[in-house]
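Much of our argument rests on the idea that a fold can be written as discrete symbols. In the encoding step, the backbone of a single protein was reduced to a row of integers, each denoting a local shape. We regard such an encoding as a compact summary of how the chain folds. The record that follows shows the chain in one-letter code together with its fold in token form:
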Amino acid sequence: MRLTDILSLACIKTPLDAKDKKAAITELVDLVNAAGKLKDRDLMLQATMEREATRTTGIGNALAIPHGKCAAVTELIMAVGKPAAPLDFESIDGKPVNIVIFLASPPDRTGPHIQALARISRLMTDQRFRHALDAASTAQAVYDVFASFEGSEFH
């Protein structure tokens, strides 16, 4: 699986307008909804907020991966947002986030969801990837960073 197979330009926003965690999640859910990827926006938002309430998805390295599983989607989807200023996401390392990657999947498709989380986590351990993503200021630039680093993983 390549993340660029589930990420489209319409699902990347930089900068996000959000000033807090809830607003960032809502903005990314609205982004994928506007791109026609959701059957039920409110159900997706509720599932994602409920998941977030169980444990923060601010995983460190300035990254948050809010995610939800529900019938609002028929396949794994992804969105990326870069807040205008770092957001408090109640991250496990106590630091704010500057990259928010939203994932959503149907409840019966855990495998691809786990694969995507693993690929994102692996990419984020690469300091060059994080710096390139930090420097990307347009949706195209963000997409190109993912495409470039995913491409290099296969060589």
